[in-house]
Write a structure and sequence with these properties.
By secondary structure, the chain is mainly beta. It has helices at 6-11, 70-83, 95-99, 105-117, 254-263, 271-279, and strands spanning 23-27, 34-42, 48-55, 130-134, 141-143, 162-167, 173-177, 182-186, 195-199, 205-209, 215-218, 229-236, 242-251, 292-300, 306-311, 328-333, 339-346, 353-361, 364-367, 377-383, 388-397, 400-409, 414-416, 427-432, 437-443, 454-460, 467-468, 486-494, 500-509, 527-538. 10% of the residues lie in helices and 35% in strands. The strands form eight sheets. The chain has a four-stranded antiparallel beta sheet, with no helix packed on it. A four-stranded antiparallel beta sheet has the order 2-3-4-5, with no helix packed on it.
């Protein structure tokens, strides 16, 4: 990454006692086909990538569904009772409407909720409302990773999970995606009628996307039963090639192979369905995971061809009688090939397994936190060219599992946990630039211990505490009177000039599953809080503004079936700044 002296002056004095910078916020271009937009990475050239969630008009395949089955008639009756009868309102669709392909917004919302609740059932259509997006150059465009055109309806299958993770200085991007689901017919042993199943060829593949949009895959070390791989970061090497890090399956552990041999005989269900069930344990990172996974360093040449695949190791040595899965994952890498991430390790005083932040360096897997200080899990998420690592650890504080961000200096071996918003506030770091400026987000609600609002922070190594980025934004909108419409919730990336990229929440007109504006019974337009991709640039000579007390606004929460889990960590629009 380039080195700029400008950033040194930008962040001088950004401590809590002398916050001296004011940022201007700029919305980036968004897709009109989705509700929420999230930035995942940006480079020093202002190229920004991310994801969208809450895709409108997701396709519903009704061709295989028997709408007289009790599972769907019961779901319809319950939905009608909860959503319509409870407010003395007539339902706007019937199951016959859906069977005929006539789905209004309410019917689409019902079907999305039904399919989501049956996502673990192999006999129902699989949908994913996550897509990769290039936010720049404007206008934003979707980047298709591994999805394919559907044979059952117009457009893509929309069954593919997409993770669009990192971008190099010259615009090469990496991420991962699953294989699209296919609808097949299979007759179980002893049965006379075929059943419909939804299967896929593999769980995940790391992908490399060229600056012009060509997609290639990074194959796992072992593709037994499909295997899995993912790519989380990319950096240019001095010779013009690239380092890519992530993880990949290296095989199937003994215990899981025995499970496969016992269960996956292709008699009662397709073998692909049996594998899919066993793979689903991977999501919990449990010892019952189907694949042994290791952190991987892929070396690519200048033409993006893989020239070496290197297993970066594991933070422990498995015993001969341990037949379950072990995992390590690399999340970030610098141009020297030093990677960071997390790995299974042993507890310091017994053989209990933990997942701890580690650095992969010179063939070693080195823990970054002292377990004897009560840290029991965590991840290292970023590393700078100067050898500064940042991440977070997890420990119990005030009888509550709490994450705290840290940085580790490879040059000195020192690990520091800076003071964040308050003692029991959970904080996570997301990125660090060449000058040791760390960004992330932390909890700002003191009273509510179960679901606290989060706001982005900036921290300069050497300062005593973090600065809330919202305190460095204007008090008012451009008219000078209206309250500032943004709450900066998540700081994701920072370049070497100190430009910050992340997610702000903003109140906008509420749109339904079809992307149509919603109104109440009186015709009044409803509003909701949505996630917006934003860029923060420092205003030369700016000063922090002292804002008068504000009344917390009232905002309509998102309703319906598109409330995805990742949004639970985002704050709703609320009081942006307190009077000092």
């Amino acid at each position: 990454m380039k080195k700029s002296l400008v950033a040194l002056s930008i962040f001088a004095g950004l401590s809590a006692s002398a916050q001296a910078a004011v940022y201007q916020l700029e919305e980036l271009s968004t897709l009109d086909t989705a509700k929420h937009h999230f930035i995942t990475d940006a480079n020093n050239n202002g190229e920004v990538i991310g994801q969208v969630r809450g895709i409108y008009n997701l396709p519903i395949d009704v061709s295989y569904i028997d709408f007289t089955e009790s599972i769907i008639t019961r779901a319809y009756d319950n939905w009608k009772e909860d959503r319509f009868d409870a407010i003395d309102k007539e339902i706007t669709f019937t199951l016959d409407d859906i069977a005929g392909g006539n789905l209004n917004a309410d019917a689409l919302t019902f079907m999305l909720g039904f399919l989501s609740s049956n996502n673990g059932n192999e006999n129902w259509q699989k949908l994913a409302d996550v897509a990769a997006v290039n936010f720049t150059p404007s206008p934003a465009v979707e980047q298709v990773l591994l999805d394919q055109t559907s044979t059952d309806y117009d457009g893509y299958t929309r069954s593919v999970s997409n993770l669009y993770n990192a971008i190099s200085e010259d615009g090469v991007r990496v991420g991962s995606g699953s294989a699209p689901y296919k609808k097949i017919e299979f007759t179980p042993s002893g049965e006379n009628e075929a059943e419909t199943y939804f299967v896929r060829d593999y769980r995940s593949r790391g992908v490399v996307v060229s600056p012009t949009g060509e997609v290639s895959t990074l194959e796992p070390v072992s593709a037994l039963y499909g295997g899995t791989s993912m790519a989380s970061d990319i950096v240019q090497r001095p010779d013009g090639g690239y380092y890519v890090v992530g993880s990949a399956s290296i095989g199937v552990p003994v215990d899981r192979q025995e499970d496969y041999d016992e269960r996956c005989d292709g008699e009662d269900e397709p073998v692909a369905v049996c594998i899919w069930r066993m793979e689903n344990l991977e999501a919990s990172n449990a010892l019952g995971a189907f694949y042994d996974r290791r952190a991987i360093l892929w070396t690519l040449d200048a033409d993006l061809n893989t020239v070496e695949t290197k297993d970066l190791g594991l933070g422990l040595v498995p015993d001969e009688d341990e037949g379950h899965a072990f995992s390590s994952v690399a999340l970030a890498v610098n141009s020297q090939g030093i990677a960071v991430g997390y790995s299974h390790v042993r507890k310091y005083d017994n053989d209990t397994l933990r997942v701890m932040p580690v650095v992969f360096k010179n063939g070693e897997v080195i823990e970054l936190l002292n377990q004897e200080d009560d840290w029991f899990s965590g991840k290292a998420v970023a590393i700078s060219e100067a050898g500064i690592i940042t991440g977070y650890g997890n420990k119990a504080i005030d009888n509550r599992n709490t994450t705290k961000f840290f940085y580790h200096d490879l040059n000195t071996g020192q690990t520091v946990f800076p003071s964040d918003y308050f003692v029991s506030s959970s904080s996570v770091a997301r990125d660090v630039n060449i000058h040791g400026v760390i960004i992330g987000e932390g909890e700002v609600d003191v009273v509510n211990s179960s679901s606290r609002r989060r706001e982005g922070f900036i921290y300069n190594i050497g300062d005593d505490t973090v600065a809330n980025i919202n305190d460095l934004l204007p008090c008012y909108d451009i008219d000078g009177e209206s309250n500032y419409p943004y709450n900066f919730a998540e700081a994701t990336a920072i370049d070497d000039d100190g430009v910050i990229y992340g997610v702000a929440t903003k109140s906008k007109e509420k749109l339904n599953a079809r992307g149509e504006v919603e109104v109440d019974d009186s015709g009044k337009v409803l509003f909701e809080s949505v996630a917006m991709p934003v860029k923060l640039s420092r205003i030369a000579g700016g000063e922090i503004e002292e804002c008068p007390p504000e009344a917390a606004g009232s905002y309509e929460r998102q309703s319906g079936s598109l409330g995805w889990l990742a949004l639970l960590a985002l704050p709703l629009l609320a009081l942006r700044r307190r009077f000092k």
